[in-house]
Design brief:
single chain; two-stranded antiparallel sheet; 32% helix; elongated; binds zinc ion
Length: 247
């Protein structure tokens, strides 16, 4: 449960998400791990990377970056003159990451050209999303990561972090996004809550159809899940984001 960003966290949202998932028949078979209980593990990972010289303190603010936003390695060999410690960045010098996504295919990214040394500990002391996710995936023994294609651009950074920390790399599947008629993704920030409006079985059926699966008509929730697990075909998922039938 990604609840580590107090300024952005909406009170009660974690409970609501778990309740919504449960209503759709999705119950975790292990205790839910809350990122807010894991700050020690994140700090320890940042400390290791700093002590091994794989990460460095940076004193730059957003205004110090070039217009591209790609970090040019300014503080790699020590803070720039007149600057004090602000964030911790991971060194990505000469790092080209290759991975194969089950839906998106083969992907190659040179991190030095695409993002530059990226932040793993923010100026407010919180761990960056990329670091927290990588540390938690390894801690929970995650072998397959399934998530929306909007997170595809994070994957190379996360794999580089796994390499730096000596952690295994899981398999990745990035599925297309359900978007509304304005092209915005359906998600927690959208007030219209289409998932909550429909009976659970209808929501699950619509989601399966959106993902290219063809469940038979007239199934109850439990039956629908059994069918989906047995007949799931990842190759039927289309690459493109498309408008959801729920809207
Ligand atoms: Zn810097």
């Amino acid at each position: 449960m990604e609840d580590i960003d107090p300024p952005r966290e909406v009170p009660g949202s974690a409970t609501r998400i778990l309740h919504d998932l449960s209503r759709l028949g999705l119950n975790s078979d292990r205790p839910v791990l809350y990122q807010s209980t894991r700050t020690g593990a994140y700090e320890s990972a940042v400390g290791t990377l700093l002590s091994e010289g794989k990460a460095f303190w940076c004193g730059c603010s957003r205004n110090d970056l070039p217009p591209s936003g790609i970090y040019p390695g300014t503080c790699r060999n020590g803070l720039a003159p007149g600057k004090s410690r602000r964030t911790v960045r991971l060194n990505v010098k000469d790092s080209t990451i290759r991975f194969s996504d089950l839906i998106q295919g083969a992907i190659e990214e040179n991190l030095e050209h695409s993002v530059g040394d990226f932040i793993i500990r923010r100026a407010d002391g919180l761990p960056a999303y990329q670091l927290a996710v990588v540390v938690d995936d390894a801690f929970q023994g995650i072998t397959e990561v399934v998530r929306g294609s909007d997170l595809l651009e994070s994957t190379a950074r996360q794999i580089h972090l796994q390499h730096a920390l000596g952690l295994p790399t899981p398999a990745y599947v990035h599925h297309p996004l359900a978007i509304d008629s304005d092209g915005k993704k359906l998600g927690k920030r959208i007030a219209s809550d289409p998932v909550g409006r429909l009976p659970a079985a209808s929501s699950v059926r619509t989601a399966l159809q959106f993902l290219g699966q063809k469940p038979p008509r007239g199934m109850e929730l439990k039956e629908l899940w059994s069918w989906a697990i047995e007949h799931w075909q990842v190759e039927s998922i289309s690459l493109a984001d498309s408008e959801s039938a729920i809207m």
